[in-house]
Amino acid sequence: TVSVLYCTSLNMAFSLKAEVLDDALQLALRSAQAAAAIMNECYERRMNHDSTFDLGMDTKSTDADLVTQYDKKCEEVVIEMLQEFAVDVDGTGKKPFRFLTEESRPDEPLLDWPTWIVDPIDGTTGFVHNSFDCGVSVGLAVNKQPVLGVVILPRLQETFTAVEGRGAFLNGKRLRASGCTLPNKAVYCTHCPYNRAPAAMDALLGMNRELMVDHRVHALRSYGSAAMDACSVAMGRLDCYFEVGIQAWDMCAAVIILREAGAVVMDVNGGPLDLTRRGMISAATPQLAEVALALCDKYKYREAMLGSA
């Protein structure tokens, strides 16, 4: 059992007891299942040609950055369930964890205090287009590091879970990354970005061309959910996925799943992953990660996508 280290500040390191993580995992799982049920109901209504169904779609940062009323409904359900969870982490009585969420609390700073990091529908474009590449991501970070994650992909009927030090699981079965070391035996994945500026597209297309022509990868994939693709690396469906432009809520839950599956996770500059830095390389092995890292450096991927280092 991990003992609680008491602190007097939201930015002082501490850890959670094993039984607290047990309860947190079960609550995160139930909240993600509730959101997934809302997504499934939407799918059914659309498949049945329900004339009263309305996504309530809007855009955010660009015309390609979509949001629907169901993103907001799913987030409301998840937050309502998670905010009931309170723990005495600093010796001053039970307090709820903080929240960092895509729709209602995207600008909250990430502190050491336990923080639920939630993407209610990761892959909204896929959801809008009735595709499979979208899901619910519920993560818990402590000391700014992921310690617990749940990712549910409703259309694939896949539920990924992990707690630090306990392994990663898909529908209750233990996960391991593929172990692939050779790019020409690997499936890589990159994403079409919201940023369609020439510099951003040149960087992405240049990297993709090198992967296919120079490294002769088995295949190159592009889906719409960061959490799904990271979890796909964890289970061996993909061998490497890397991207710049994603947010903490896209990464948090999936990162602990990756780590517990034995995958490599790093920043696109090669340093330790930072959830606030908007980029990630995930790979089955260091050898595949090095290929992605070299491409990110050569094409100045972070600068091209974000406009700065």
Can you offer a commentary on this structure?
With 309 residues, this protein is an alpha+beta fold. The chain folds into 2 domains: 18-174, Fructose-1,6-Bisphosphatase, subunit A, domain 1 (Fructose-1,6-Bisphosphatase, Chain A, domain 1, 2-Layer Sandwich), CATH 3.30.540.10; 183-306, D-Maltodextrin-Binding Protein, domain 2, CATH 3.40.190. 35% of the residues lie in helices and 22% in strands. It is built from 8 helices and 16 strands. It has helices at residues 18-47, 69-82, 124-128, 198-214, 226-235, 248-260, 286-298, 301-306; strands at residues 58-59, 66-67, 86-87, 95-96, 98-101, 115-122, 135-142, 145-153, 158-163, 168-170, 173-174, 187-189, 219-221, 240-244, 264-266, 279-283. The strands form 4 sheets. The protein has a 7-stranded mixed beta sheet with strand order 5-6-7-8-9-10-11, sandwiched between helices. A 5-stranded mixed beta sheet has the order 13-12-14-16-15, sandwiched between helices. A two-stranded antiparallel sheet has the order 1-2. A hairpin with a 4-residue loop joins β9 and β10 (168-170). α5 runs parallel beside α6 (248-260). It is globular and about 55 Å long. 45% of the residues are buried.
